[in-house]
Amino acid sequence: MAALRLTLAASLAAARARPPLGRRPPPAPCSASAGAMEPEPRWLAGLRFDNRALRALPVETPPSGPEGAPSAPRPVPGACFSRVRPAPLRQPRVVALSEPALALLGLGAPPADAAAREAREAEAALFFSGNALLPGAEPAAHCYCGHQFGQFAGQLGDGAAMYLGEVCTAAGERWELQLKGAGPTPFSRQADGRKVLRSSIREFLCSEAMFHLGIPTTRAGACVTSQSTVERDVFYDGNPRPEQCAVVLRVAPTFLRFGSFEIFKSSDEHTGRAGPSVGRNDIRVQMLDYVISTFYPEIQATHASDSVQRHAAFFREVTRRTAQLVAEWQCVGFCHGVLNTDNMSIVGLTIDYGPFGFLDRYDPDHVCNASDTAGRYSYSRQPEVCKWNLQKLAEALHPALPLELAEAILAEEFDAEFRRHYLQKMRWKLGLVRAEREEDSALVARLLETMHLTGADFTNSFYLLSSFPAGPESRDLDEFLAALTAQCASLEELRLAFRPQMDPRQLSMMLMLAQSNPQLLALIGTRASLARELERVERQSRLEQLSPAELHSKNRSRWAEWLLEYRARLEKDQEAAGDTAAWQAERVRVMHANNPKYVLRNYIAQGAIEAAESGDFSEASGPPGPPLLVPSRCRGGGAPTNTAPPALLQVRRVLKLLETPYRGEGVAAEACEAAEPEEASGAASRRHSYSSKPPLWAAELCVT
């Protein structure tokens, strides 16, 4: 591969930039190689750039100064973008390519010839790391602001991501390319603009997993690692260690977000911060014109002569898409983790995958981000937070869209659209394909309550319901109940989940403070934490008095009660259908299409990370073993702390598995089954499938 990279680099002298559809930027002065001619692509030569965003929106020209000055942190007033240049990495190497995502750009399937595939990966490593620029690419960083954990943070912007340009395909589609982790920008603040391998693999895999689950999302075309390293304090304990730098090629119609419109915000009454372009309503209108004409052309055509109605229709559609998006999240058990306004897409996509997580044991108050100590972005609060973020977008659009009009639209649309979409999706997950009944909402609520009380696995419980014996000839539920109760949390799992987090002396002090000075307790923000800790102590006490047999009996009883209600509802649906055989076939088909067998659980991502950090990205056949490192404490970044027997979980094989999440058929899914190690007794190893309940150690994984 090194020779192939040298061959590509040797084409420097012969490279001639073809005329792009958009304009080619002048050489940027921020890199020593900026004035050199770029290598000429071969596989990627067909990509045609037309960078409409940079023509339609104001772009800051980097200030003159010494080498590297354009990427120096600074306010960027009066502009939506600032020109930048990716910083090169040492010896970039492809971790994985997503062929379905790259196909969006018109790039063909991988060649059968091994040498050709190797050359293709060498080219991908060169251009998708940012070490070389494609003809027509115009790297820039986007300026935006945001409310983070409810507080306005002022200017944020692309601190580690870079817009490359927009590729127009033969199919008439337009896709924005972005490199995440390509180096510093004016928005990097005190950071280095880099992303490490573990966070890059998580974003790469989850972007593609969400797409194949049918959820609107940005895409990831490539993940590239390197020999470059940066220091990261993985456990936030004052002991930083070097980690490999990596870059993700992200693909989307646009990466504009709610926070893109917050650059005009005046001084915030709580934080005192303001956006960099206060008072520039001309740029706000310019952005609205660009977004609506490019991504909502039907609205532009319908309201061409009335700007207020055009902006109102735009906000109404963003509200609907956002409500539908968060309903999809709830139905698949996805937790975003950092639902700040700067992480909300203006076109209704899931964007910016950081400390995300999928529910294992169903817990409506689950918080996937260990930094979110107040639980602001818990699973159950996601719809509420998305609505709050839309309120902030409404404020950011004023006066181009009068605030009272935007608030009326939000009140009219969001809750109704969320309930409609959520309930319809839940009906499909339960196989209710014919009659819609008012009591369906209560049936779903009682199902989730049963899952919560029994600690049932969210994904697996729904998947099992696809095989529920619905016919009148199948009255015996014993076998099905046994399978369903096996997905409930064991006593060991529950004791682990509800173990107290505070030192007893700390808890005693908090209780004394709650009695003597409740105002101070509220001021320092520990009231919610105290309530959760008291609940954990109480649950732990009850669990200590419970035997496994008693727990199993309670779980079985709760599920049996709900299943009788469910069967009665299915019988009503069947009666509305008439043809029993046709109804049964449709029910199973719809349930299989809406209840995934595989989701990107944290422990699966962690295993892929450990395999990649060991340097193995292969697609070798045969099942991988258990994770090389098993986390035993909750500190940060999904990083592990103690060792287990060596093993390799392949990023590419996990990616392949996630491309077929619903049916799990074929060689790809079967090849990604994970085998547990031999037990100490030397007995034959037990197989642990990715579709099984997670291993107990997975509950210890925390991401920040």
From TrEMBL:
Pfam families from the UniProt entry: SelO (PF02696)
Signal peptide residue numbers: 1-17
Keyword list, A-Z: ATP-binding, Magnesium, Metal-binding, Nucleotide-binding, Nucleotidyltransferase, Signal, Transferase
Recorded GO MF terms: ATP binding; metal ion binding; nucleotidyltransferase activity
Cofactor(s) named in the record: Mg(2+)
Positions of the UniProt region annotated as Disordered: 15-37, 57-77
UniProt cross-references to PANTHER family, sorted A to Z: PROTEIN ADENYLYLTRANSFERASE SELO, MITOCHONDRIAL, SELENOPROTEIN O
NCBIfam families linked: PRK00029.1
Family in the record: Belongs to the SELO family.
Designated name of the protein: Selenoprotein O
Organism in which the protein naturally occurs: Delphinapterus leucas (Beluga whale)
